[in-house]
Amino acid sequence: MYAKCGCIEDAETIFKELVRHDKVLWNTIRGFSLHGQGDKALETFQKMKDESNLPDDVTFIGVLFACSHMGLVEEGKQHFNSMSNVYGVTPRDEHYVCMVDILSHAGTFADVESFVEAMKLTTNALVWENVLGACAKHGNVKFGERAAKRLFELKCDTDSTYILLSNIFASKGWWAEAKRIRALMSSHGVKKEPGCSWVEINNKVHVFVLDGAHPHIREIHLKLEELGEKLKLIGYVPQIEHVLHDVPYTEKEEHLNHHSEKLALAFALMSNSHVKMLINQNQIPNLFYESFL
Question: Which residues form the DYW domain (predicted)?
Fold first, then answer.
């Protein structure tokens, strides 16, 4: 539970205090992987094997997820092959998706294509969603269009399909194409799920939706401006290339301060600057921040 919630240190403490570790406890590997602790996930996996505990299908989801986040392509392949060859574990859809994620996020799209064909995954929507996300990351227009087309054919035209394809075009400066996809999304009645983040302060949960109403929104923006100035003094340069809108530079920089997780972070820092904070978001894995400002 602690690992799933992102409380990694608490999860580790409890794990170490227990004398006996069953398979359920060893599978905290998955929790480590989900929260960017891939090295700890793989370290725990090695300890599991050293103590003669056999991994199961859940274990390997965590292991492969860790390899994906750490960009360990060859190690990921080895673990995937060992599932059936060494441990007699039959791969499920989740494992195939993890392998596609490993290959696509490394930018090896030729390998992705070969793997998808060999494993007969062409009708698996999750596979193509992962491929499309990786194409957006790497700016691969050709493969991205193919992935989106496959998703449309599979009737999986969620908001992320349109948005990722639009973002691929926008990252290349192809604004007309990006707008065309957004218009297509609108004509099909598909609406974007707004980014939402929440943080618990003094036993109360505070929710942020972009610039949605909050009683302290003005103070929050002032705090973000203050943080931005401090960061610039130590060399931070706003990554405006991630703002995929055809607007002037200053507007792109301002847009970065409107992300819901930044609003949550600024509010948490305003409320208590000497504690650890767990910020949750509805579209990406939990982000763990330790206050140092």
Answer: 235-275
Q: With contact defined as beta carbons under 8 Å apart, do 135 and 147 qualify?
A: yes
Q: Which of 25-39, 42-56, 152-166 has the highest mean pLDDT?
A: 152-166
For the chain, how many structural domains are there in total?
Answer: 2
pLDDT for the residue numbered 282: 64
Look at the pTM and tell me if it is higher than 0.70: yes
pLDDT, tens digit (0-9, with 9 covering 90-100), for 172-201: 889 899 999 999 999 999 988 777 888 888
| Short-list 23, 32, 77, 24, CA closest to 51 | 23
C-alpha span between 89 and 95 (Å, rounded): 11
| Band (25; pLDDT cuts 50, 70, 90) | low
Which residue has 């996809």 as its token pair?
181
Q: Position 293: which residue type? A: L
For residues 75 and 177, membership in a common domain is answered with yes
Question: Look-up: residue for tokens 């819901």?
Answer: 260
The CA distance from 104 to 68, in Å, is 9
One domain, residues 213 and 285 = yes
Range of the domain at 58: 2-187
Task: Give dist(CA 188, CA 170) in Å, integer.
Answer: 20
Is the CB of residue 78 less than 8 Å from the CB of residue 46?
no
Most confident of 96-110, 195-209, 214-228: 96-110
Strands ordered across the beta sheet of 287-290: 204-209, 196-201, 276-281, 287-290
Last residue of a domain, one of 154, 187, 220: 187
The rounded distance, in Å, linking the Cα atoms of 290 and 267 is: 14
Of the candidates 170, 187, 204, which is a domain's last residue? 187
Are 17 and 88 in the same domain? yes
DSSP letter for 43, please. Answer: H
Is residue 166 within 8 Å of 178, Cβ to Cβ? yes
Distance CA(41)–CA(62), nearest Å, equals 7
